[in-house]
TrEMBL record:
Main location: cytoplasm
GO terms under cellular component: cytosol
Catalysed transformations (reactions): (2R,3S)-3-isopropylmalate + NAD(+) = 4-methyl-2-oxopentanoate + CO2 + NADH
Domain (Isopropylmalate dehydrogenase-like) ranges: 4-352
GO biological process: L-leucine biosynthetic process
Single GO molecular function: magnesium ion binding
Organism: Clostridium manihotivorum
Family per similarity comment: Belongs to the isocitrate and isopropylmalate dehydrogenases family. LeuB type 1 subfamily.
Protein's recorded name: 3-isopropylmalate dehydrogenase
Length: 363
């Protein structure tokens, strides 16, 4: 089968880490008999330089024609003027909106060989951290009505949290579908003791839950959830929440795994079309030096196989290969500790490919 992938390497370390992910996909293609057809596209700072806009029309159109998008990172000091009309990050918002990507999925997974990198105590980590945050991405307060006005000689500003039942049902259903494939525990995070939008959110979760009797559902206020993520992260399997709460909690969740260079993410829309990218930025301080950790991007490619192409076995083969490389003691600078073997971007990619080559494909 042929899968069409739009590839946006972007800025900074983007091209370096994406190249390693593409090499891994080639090996998967050969081993499992799939063809990945790539369309290389510009977005971010490099697109501003070449085309005068962070998201050229052609990029969005080609992404719409593809089955999935694999993205490195965008941005960098060259385009960092906060007063500028155009910024590289506008490309990400344009892609999410233009492709209708309403669900952001971020796994918080602490690899056993990297447990020393977590800021949490050993007894809190216990036998490991492994949960996913499902964040609503195209609604809520970031898209609601906002403005400023004056009243009684005082300046005011307001932002509005607004969700429809349809928007909530769609993201909640996606979260249940993910929970079914994991440990079947769903925590819905809201602020229903105060916010009306949260009370509607909770009611919709209860309604959708009836279709998933095998999933254990609990509701948690967002302030408690922020505390529980560092106090007892092992209680979580899948967390589903609104755009703003998810923005904050998913960053907290990534921190407890210790390394930004290890974490993939997916933004998914209708018909499983998705955009897959590492959560890190363009890391201008190490760009072009061959030092970047490519594992977050390689694992993003694995998420693409799992969620957009339904290739579970292939995705797991990549995840296992990454784990074996870490178990063998290989580390890029960002995850290096005493006694380990330091490697660069390309070597890390080759090590993963080496492990993949030894995976046996069932006939
Ligand atoms: P960053 O994630 O780029 O870097 C933070 C720190 O982590 C740096 O020290 C960097 O060297 C290190 N780091 C990040 N990824 C790494 C990797 N794969 N391997 C090894 N080390 C890694 O965040 P920042 O410095 O705040 O932002 C730099 C630029 O990236 C900014 O222009 C920002 O706007 C942009 N950015 C883009 C995205 C995106 O494209 N999705 C996300 C965040 C930031």
């Amino acid at each position: 089968m042929t899968y069409k992938v739009a590839v946006i390497k972007g800025d900074g370390i983007g091209p370096e880490v994406v190249d390693e992910a593409l090499k891994v996909l080639e090996v998967i293609g050969e081993k499992y008999n799939h063809k990945f057809e790539y369309k290389f596209l510009l977005a971010g700072g490099c697109a501003m330089d070449e085309k005068g806009t962070p998201l050229p029309e052609e990029t969005l159109e080609e992404c719409k024609k593809s089955d999935a998008v694999l993205l490195g990172a965008v941005g960098g000091p060259k385009w960092d003027d906060p007063t500028a009309k155009q910024r590289p990050e506008q490309a990400l918002l344009g892609l999410r909106g233009g492709l209708g990507l309403y669900c952001n999925l971020r796994p918080a997974l602490l690899y056993a060989p990297l447990r020393a990198a977590s800021p949490l105590k050993d007894e809190v980590i216990g036998d490991g951290i492994d949960f996913s945050v499902v964040r609503e991405l195209t609604g809520g307060i970031y898209f609601g009505d906002r403005g400023r006005f004056e009243e009684n000689n005082e300046q005011y500003a307001y932002d509005t949290e607004k969700y429809s039942v349809t928007e909530i049902r769609r993201i909640v259903k996606t979260a249940f579908d993910i929970a079914v494939k994991r440990n079947k525990i769903l925590t819905s995070v809201d602020k229903a003791n105060i916010l009306e939008s949260s009370r509607l959110w909770r009611a919709v979760v209860e309604e959708v839950a009836k279709d998933y009797p095998e999933v254990k559902v609990n509701h948690m206020y967002v302030d408690n959830a922020a505390m529980q993520i560092v106090r007892n992260p092992r209680q979580f399997d899948v967390i589903v929440t609104s755009n703003m709460f998810g923005d904050i909690l998913s960053d907290e969740a990534s921190m407890i795994t210790g390394s930004i260079g290890m974490l993939p993410s997916a933004s998914i829309g209708e018909n499983n079309r998705g955009m897959y990218e590492p959560i890190h930025g363009s890391a201008p301080d190490i760009a072009g030096m061959g030092l970047a950790n490519p594992l977050a991007t390689i694992l993003s490619a694995a998420m693409m196989l799992k969620f957009s192409f339904n290739l579970q076995e292939e995705a797991e083969a990549i995840e296992k290969a990454v784990l074996r490389v870490l178990e063998a003691g290989y580390r890029t600078g960002d995850i290096f500790s005493e006694g380990m073997k330091k490697v660069g971007t390309k070597e890390m990619g080759s090590l993963v490919i080496g492990e993949l080559s030894s995976v046996k494909v069932p006939c």
